[in-house]
Amino acid sequence: MKNRWYKENENDIIWWKDTPDDIGVRIFSFDKIKEYNLYGDYPDNLTKEEREIFEKENPWWKGFF
Question: Which is the most buried residue in 4, 23, 45, 62, by most CB within 10 A?
Answer without folding.
Answer: 62
